[in-house]
What does this fold into?
Amino acid sequence: MKRLIKKLLSESIIYEVIDSLLDEDYPSNWNVEEFKSLTSFNARMKYCQDNLQRISSGSGRIVYMIDNEKVLKLARNKKGVAQNEVEVQYSREHMLEDIVATIFNAEPNDLWVEMELARKLTTKSFKQLVGVSFELFAQAVSNYGSDANGDNRGGGRYNIPQETVDELWENEFIYGIFQLIGNYGIPAGDLMKTSSYGIVKRNGEDIVVMIDYGLTSEVYDSYYS
It folds into this structure.
């Protein structure tokens, strides 16, 4: 639609005005060029605090809501930068695109990223959308983390019938999460938390995606252990 409007107005003297309105992504009080020019974490954080809504934070990053489609993850230290870097890289992996939140934009040095905004996930909504209880999913993740990487941070070994395990591997979303563990180095522990996930709409349908996938085993060993 946006492309069509631009085409229809391409001969109009008001094209530049309409074009700027169509490309407006941020709140009116947010100047992205001014934000990009800031050279310290404290200055970037203050600018975000003054102009955006803070929605969560961790030891490495602070998350602000930009609008009803995007959030900004601001690195507060080297481990936050490392997590942003991983999320930029993984969001570009074709085989992960349906299980991770999309990164729309990133600062060249990964000081901040713009990520797809997701709605809160509950155990109830997980069961509705994925078709498996979150408890069973978390137990399977713990077992696979231990089997694939010797990762015991999932909390233990759970007795799951092989028939059920086989069925879980047939679930498209769960298969993708197992790939994150086996091929991309995401520790099982973070994958067992509902807070690591959210709900987004893709092709008109609600799906579950990871919204916090920057803490790989390598990042953990480098900055958290």
Q: What stands out?
A: DSSP finds eleven helices and eight strands in the chain. The chain has two domains: 31-117, 120-223. The two ends are 49 Å apart (CA to CA). Residues 82 and 219 are 7 Å apart (CA to CA).
